[in-house]
Design brief:
Layout lengths: L1 H16 L9 E6 L2 H5 L4 H6 L3 E4 L7 E5 L4 H10 L3 E6 L2 H18 L13
Antiparallel strand pairs: 1-3, 1-4, 2-3
Amino acid sequence: MKILWFFVCCLCIALNYVDCGLYDGFKIYELATTNQTIGDGLDLSELSRNESFFEQYSISGSPDRMMVHPKAQADFLQLLQIHNMSYTIVNHNVGLKLLTEFITNSLLRRMYPYQGRLGTKRYY
């Protein structure tokens, strides 16, 4: 019963920390850029200057990934359609992904606080 109570408390604390919802609704798109789309005038670095878009540069030769604000997704999709760019959605909700990772990591830190090593705060 104490473990269940502890788990519920940890979950409530984690939800309070991440409750601000900074990335709720953000989506990550993976764009397949070709030389033709770059020649058509679509410059991905120009999109990163806009507050609605965030460009995540990738290793050369691999597709680019863009994180898009929820309010700007319609404009972004229209821009991709104009330039005939194909895309796939890598992450549908960045805020939810961050929340689940935060909760998982906090529970793992509580289960294995010193990762098998002796801590300096314990005296035997």
